[in-house]
Design goal:
The complex is a heterodimer of chains A (408) and B (369). Chain A is of the alpha/beta class and 408 residues long. Chain A is built from 13 helices and 15 strands. The longest helix of chain A is centred in the C-terminal third of the chain and has 19 residues. The two termini of chain A are 31 Å apart. Chain B is built from ten helices and 15 strands. In chain B, helix 8 crosses helix 9. Classes of the chains: A alpha/beta (408), B alpha/beta (369).
Chain lengths: 408, 369
């Protein structure tokens, strides 16, 4: 461990991170322009989607956001630079936990960067397993221009094959994203006392309460947001909208809302053009569409799609149907109460990351809490998490901190 | 509705098509296939209510028929779990096969009004693609015994084949998930000693299990020349998946049967006819297996919008099986393939797309449930 950031004041670190991010938030910033095409190639997402992702990612990394998160979790930034007094307790200091490894294989755009940012704020040395687009490496290069210490503290590496191609036993903390079996393997490769921060498979849902369906305009605005939450990243992220619950009893009926959503999707396809789909996804979409149409012909539910099969909305499928988990495809369940959504999530053992809600009704919030969600967001903002947010329900910097306290 | 004259006439006509190919190798021209397919479809629109409702929702009725067999609406396989797709009262069904509950956990049924078409179709195909040399074999089955599990279409098929083409010493080695390896080994040794050629038929997963067990015991066999293997199905719902190359190598090593004597069969409960692999296993097509079917079974390859894709383009397979007279002749699958000449290159079911970090995928969801 080099401890390259050990003597750098945390405010300088935060400023360096925010300044670099600000440069990356500029669409014309040359390193961003250079890496753009590589991200398009790796993910297959069209350029507007990648641009949007980079905007959201880097615009969120600001001094106020980082400062507020650190102060919120540690009491103050000063704890990272030295001993600080604590009310009713002895002085304490937040030290870096040690070297941190972030295994960001198979992730959406830049998922490793927020974790790396917080680990660097904790003054840890960070190694990120980068993807083929080298986005993290390029961002780290910008960091080094902000402060020379970042050059030693932040390293992005690529290693092919599975996680075991890299020895993880020397890291004090390992952050990983992926399936449960992948996380279990990575965890097993860590040192016994290492901190493991695993982000397993999760989905996000939406809940439209009847009181928000009072008129076409209000319902249309919710539909616009839901359409954006659905189409971004081709439904592949843990923050993508994977199931939508709409209450009966509003002035706008769920059937009408489904129609509004379908129309909103037509517009969303223009803003965020669909990625070219593989034959497998097309086959599964075709099967889902045909089954929904078959049911609709028998009087159960309805199906909404366009001529080019860019999206699929299935209205009121049986509760036994799991989420479609296909690009730009969504089951819209008609419900009477949030408990119906809870029952569905429990039935299908869905771990929920975030809930898009049309309002903060108590029973809707309770449903989100019971589902294990880490976040409640308005429709349209599901895929734009704040830097202060608690991805996976975890604190952001605390995992990278080792406390030392003085007895009173 | 009792078995009526119209049904009887159609069955007789389809039966003649099957017999002409089976006995004389006579195929069906495009026009002949089209004509018969559209007449069967029109019949199904009159007698298969759920199918007719579905077609009606797509604007297709007896009064507004499609111009080509390519435009006959296909029901997804899952529809067999949703409704009774039959042109007759299923209480009179001669055969009823159960589909597996893959996605929703619910099973479905495929009803056949008579055995005649089903039997004629499966035997004609098996004779052509498995028994072109006219061999009479001893059958070792790693599929459900129809005596125990009459609702298994695969079990029924092999039961029919064994009864009509076997040597009278058929073995059944699968019950539920239990594989009777001791019995297989004993019967296999006897067949080797007697110099009797065999046909081992089973699902890919059952073969994996058997080869694993035989490897543990260090058992190998040198079956008589002319022996062969029919491998079918995949690894649906199974935890261990091996490549087809690995599986075939193991089968060659355990049974002493040459790789070119291993034939892959592909079908499903919702069909009455089967596809068989016709390219050499030793020189596999880079992206799939070349499959052929009897002339009354054709496939079209479709995109997400349901439209037929040009030859060579990979998409979802829609099977049009004229022997499905009493249910639904056009069946949409999620299996991938491409049209090539009169056959298809079968790629099979694609697993989920590449995962994106902490996103949820269908496989994970199924495992969680």
């Amino acid at each position: 461990m080099t401890g390259a950031l050990a003597s750098v004041p945390v405010r300088a670190i935060v400023r360096g991170l925010a300044d670099a991010a600000a440069r990356w938030a500029d669409a014309d910033f040359p390193p961003r322009v250079r890496v753009l095409e590589a991200i398009v190639v790796r993910t297959g997402y069209p350029l507007p989607v990648v641009e949007y992702a980079l905007d959201r990612l880097f615009e969120a990394i600001t001094e106020p956001a980082l400062t507020a998160t650190i102060a919120g979790e540690l009491g103050s930034l000063d704890a990272l630079d030295g001993w600080t007094a604590r009310a009713g307790r002895g002085d304490a200091r937040a030290l870096p936990v040690g070297q941190v490894c972030i295994v960001s294989s198979r992730t959406t755009i830049g998922v490793a960067i927020p974790a790396a940012v917080y680990a660097l704020c904790a003054k840890c040395d960070v190694v990120v397993k980068d993807r083929e687009d080298h986005l993290v490496a390029a961002f780290f290069a910008s960091l080094a221009q902000e402060h020379a210490a970042f050059a030693s503290a932040a390293r992005a590496e690529t290693w092919s094959g599975s996680h075991d191609a890299r020895d993880l036993s020397g890291f004090a903390a390992v952050v990983a994203y992926g399936r449960d079996d992948t996380l279990a393997e990575i965890r097993a490769a860590c040192a016994p006392e290492a901190r493991f921060v695993g982000y397993g498979p999760r989905a996000s849902i939406g809940y439209v309460a009847r009181e928000s369906l009072v008129d076409e305009r209000g319902a249309g605005a919710i539909a616009e947001g839901a359409a954006r939450d659905l189409v971004l990243y081709e439904s592949e992220g843990c923050l993508s909208l994977h199931a939508l619950f709409v209450e009966r009893g509003g002035a706008i009926a769920p059937e009408r809302f489904a129609g509004l959503l379908a129309r909103a999707l037509e517009r969303a396809h223009v803003e965020f053009p669909p990625r070219e789909r593989g034959a497998g996804a097309s086959a599964r979409l075709g099967g889902a569409r045909a089954l929904a149409a078959f049911r609709a012909a028998s009087g159960t539910g309805a199906v909404y799609g366009d001529r080019d099969a860019r999206h699929l909305i299935v209205l009121d499928p049986p509760a036994s149907d799991p989420p479609l988990l296909l690009p730009r495809a969504l089951n819209l369940h008609v419900v009477d109460r949030p408990g119906d959504a809870s029952a569905y999530l429990e039935r299908h053992a869905i771990a929920v990351e975030a809930v898009a809600a049309s309002g903060k009704r108590d029973d809707v919030v309770k449903m989100a809490v019971d589902a294990g969600a880490a976040r409640i967001a308005p429709f349209g903002a599901l895929q734009s998490p704040q830097m202060e947010g608690n991805h996976g329900g975890r604190l952001r910097i605390a995992d990278y901190i080792r406390w030392i306290a003085e007895d009173t | 509705m009792p078995y009526n004259r119209e049904s009887g006439e159609l069955d007789a006509e389809i039966g003649r098509v099957i017999a002409a190919w089976h006995k004389h190798g006579r195929g069906l021209s495009d026009a002949e296939f089209e004509d018969l397919a559209l007449r069967i479809f029109a019949y199904q629109l009159r007698y298969d209510e759920p199918y007719a409702r579905y077609c009606g929702s797509l604007g297709i009725t007896v009064a507004a028929m499609p111009a080509s067999w390519h435009e006959i609406p296909a029901v997804p396989t899952a529809a067999f779990k949703e409704a009774t797709l039959a042109t007759f009262d299923p209480a009179r069904a001669a055969l009823a096969f159960e589909t597996s509950g893959t996605t929703s956990g619910l099973g479905g049924r495929h009803y056949m009004e008579t055995r005649a078409l089903y039997d004629a179709s499966l035997l004609a195909g098996f004779d052509r693609f498995m028994l072109a040399d006219g061999a009479r074999l001893r059958y070792f089955n790693l599929v459900p015994n129809p005596a125990d599990r009459p609702q298994s279409s695969l079990g029924y098929m092999m039961g029919r084949v064994c009864a009509d083409r076997g040597d009278g010493n058929t073995g059944w080695y699968l019950r539920g998930d239990d594989l009777f390896v001791d019995a297989f080994v004993a019967d296999a040794r006897a067949a080797v000693e007697d110099g009797v050629p065999v046909c081992i038929a089973g699902t890919a997963f059952a073969f994996v299990q058997l080869c694993d067990e035989l490897a543990e015991r260090g058992a190998t066999f040198a079956f008589a020349p002319g022996s062969r293997i029919m491998e079918t199905g995949g690894f649906k719902g199974r935890s261990r998946i091996v490549s087809r190359e690995e599986l075939y190598a193991a089968m060659v090593a355990r049974f002493g049967i040459r790789e070119e004597r291993i034939v892959a069969e592909y079908s499903m409960t919702e069909l009455s006819s089967q596809w068989y692999r016709v390219d050499a296993p030793a020189s596999p097509a880079p992206h799939g297996r070349l499959m052929a079917a009897p002339p009354w079974l054709r496939a079209r390859v479709t995109g997400a919008d349901g439209k037929t894709l040009p030859p060579g383009v990979v998409g979802a397979l829609v099977h049009v099986d004229l022997a499905n007279r009493s249910s639904c002749l056009a069946v949409q699958t999620e299996d991938l393939g491409a049209a090539v000449g009169d056959g298809i290159v079968l790629i099979g079911r694609e697993h989920g797309a590449e995962l994106r970090g902490c996103s949820l995928d269908a496989e994970t969801l199924r495992a969680a449930r």
